[in-house]
Specification:
heterodimer; A: alpha/beta; Pyruvate-ferredoxin Oxidoreductase, domain 3; Rossmann fold; about 40% helix; B: Rossmann fold; 10-stranded mixed beta sheet; 12 helices; globular
Amino acid sequence: MPERKSAAPRVNDFTIKFANVNGSGSASANSLVMKAIFRTGVPVVGKNFFPSNIQGLPTWYEIRVTREGWRARSGRIDIMVAMNAETYSRDVREVTPGGCLIFDSTWPRSSLLARDDIRTFGVPFAQLCNENFEGARARTLMKNIMYAGTLAALIDLDLEVIRSLLAETFAKKPALVESNMKAIEIGYRYAKEHFECPLAARIERMDATKGHVVIDGNTAAALGCVYAGATVGAWYPITPSTSLMDAFRSFCARHRTDPATGRRDYVVVQAEDELAAIGVVIGAMWNGARAFTPTSGPGISLMEEFIGLAYYAEVPAVIFDVQRVGPSTGMPTRTQQCDLIACAYASHGDTRHVLLFPDSPEECFQMAVQAFDLAERLQTPVFVLLDLDIGMNDWMTPEFRWDDSYRPDRGKMLTPEQIEGLAKFQRYMDPDGDGIPYRTLPGISPKAAYFTRGSGHSKFGTYTEDSAEYREVLDRLTRKFHTAAKLVPPAVTDGRGAAAGIVSLGSCDGPVREALATLRRSGVAIDYLRVRGFPFGAEVEEFLAAHPTVFVVEQNRDAQLRSLLTLETAVEKKQLHSILHYDGLPMPPSCIVEGVNQLLARGVAA
Amino acid sequence: MSFIAKPKVANPGLPRNTLGLNRRDYEGSMSTLCAGCGHDSVTAAIVQACFELALAPQSVVKLSGIGCSSKTTAYFVGGAHGFNSVHGRMPSIATGANAANRHLRYIGVSGDGDSLSIGVGQLTHAIRRNLDMVYILENNGVYGLTKGQFSASADVGSKSKKGEANEQEPIDPVLLALTLGASFVARSFSGDKEQLVPLIQAGLAHRGFAIIDVLSPCVTFNDHEGSTKSYAYVREHTETPVSADYIAPKQEIRVQYGPGETVSVPMHDGSNVVLRKLDPGYDPTDRTRAAAYVQERAMRNEYVTGLIYVDESRRDFHERNGTSDQALNAVPYERLCPGAAKLGKILGSFR
């Protein structure tokens, strides 16, 4: 998006951070603020930093208001809404000089926590709630809604937009609209009466959010599964992937249930563990239904044996891995891109898998559909690698489009007529030379029958321990993987002719693009390639060949994308320089700018 | 070991079923198990049951895990799709396959290692789902392919071939299934085809999870003196309170029984299972008493066989889900996809 100069540098360009206690209802207040800004036509980015806990621990929410439409964290905090006494001292420290802090002034605050380079706005939220609302729970909830009102006054947010959002949220409970609005207005009035409003960091109406929605990647992927025609979902609940299945169920309840009979065109199996969840997916796709499982790193570890079976017996499967911080249980509510290697080579023996890397909810929707087409076309498991940042955060993303002429690609699945025309069906032949055999579904004809096994088999589908027969099948699987490289979504590139390039993937895209703009302003021109699929296509090889210096930007400690590039392309290892971010928070652009500048200063590029 | 195709030469005089198929049409490839293995008798019973029921071969789906028993899915109904999956995980494959197409007959074959050790979790949850399938557990108390280790069904005091006695408590699949609320629980002996064939037929007619624990001696590793899963021991230590006769839909119940001796259970497919009470005090529809009966006989070193418990009224996996009648793998895509116009409306709530 083009950058614009502005006389008022912080108008529509600032970051608000909310420090809350989880389980206190702050999430709805924060998303109300974010949606109100979005509805005022100003682009927003929302990031949730929450604990692995149900109630009582600190939680933060960040809203970046970005007139340029950037998609990353800004790395600065202009307004801190400090509602959690436990984290207050740390929250005060985080505010960018010149910024401000809103706090509950009901109780005295230690002067030790003051800073003279920021402004503070004390509002007696608890006291105002006690005066105006009855009941402990209502008072807690209204305290959060009330700060949204104070904030609205300070950043000049239109109360009517907030009112209409509340009316939509509580369409069936109009009383709640009034009580929430009352809290908003109390907070708003207090700010107007006591502070100079608005701040320099404020909202001015724009027209830059038309044609966009605010949605998280898990919901988008679930919608993609519905549109792809998936009928079987199986999962074991695991953060941060659970909301994907929640969304699938809720879309299906509305769009896949016969309104007259209540009968469902879908099945969701809450399995006893991830081993069973992937087994259900494999069984269903083997039997011709489109099936998927959402999971995260620990689930991938558990699924590995079955994934190897699906690879070798050539059964389609679709797996959404919403990556979280590892190793082991790690930090379940923090983000990372740490399962690239685990997914690429999941399971024992020689296995290689097809991976897709969406960068946004929009691509989650598209790639969910592509994943089913690829899985059936290639008769193999396909992984869609989201991360917690994409999966659970609210992203402003272009409205998804749908072409009604789309029909699922069921791949080389023989029809009953084709089966009748055959002299004999043999499962693992390669008549087309692309490494992809033909398959049949149970229930059609005895002529179509074959025996699926994970033990050694010949191209005829029969059990074998014969070396040549075994190798013949294994070598064909390599050919199939080469075919996959031509079918996965191609990498996208930006810029050409520079000596240095960035290669990255997934949710790094937002920070990379912002960093590239910053570097360009300082006279550093760098080309960019974002891989969207694995195995890598020819365009990845070409980009690597054309750039003597390549910065590989990714969110894990061990440079897993770099490893895949060195293993699976002709690139020289010394050409690749890693810029890594793996603290569990979404990557900020500054990390890339600094990384590139440091590497350049060390003379890595010509 | 290699794949051996069985020659398809059938005696023209062989009896044919209503589909015009003979018994040989329900066989699969040649067994590679040891000569005299109990599992081969179970395979023969499955062949007989499917032939007599006149099932279209393609309407059957065969599923298994890993182990000697799991190999046998290749040895029956060659005209059916088979899936030899991973160790102990057949129930999840069966769940997915059944979810995709509720109209086929799912026959799972497993063993005591596959079902009671590595796969006990998946077995228990398939029972809880009341998945519509027949689950045949070929139970020999021993690991055959890895040469003779005790399995989880080995009885306390039972001796291995080398003379070592098992001290760990066994898991009895029948008691396990009763405890978990299985809707059809039976036990039989691979050497008793008369009993086993109608049990398999009744299990196929049952809508829901039908588990049949078949004591199936391992001639190589567990058929010696001191083993409680040998041919000789099982023959001498079975007790059958109820035997089952399968009566196909519309077939007349011809055999005359004395009053109070029989219970006829109508199955969902229109067939009947007639239970002959050999012990007049036994009630195969009373789960608590069935479990007590099995335990009492176990104390006396007796295996209770026959149809131990049946409840045809329980809702199966799909009924609980409210799945459409049409197999999910055959629902037209147009019915599954909400389309472009609705996408706009759906996205409206995200603005």
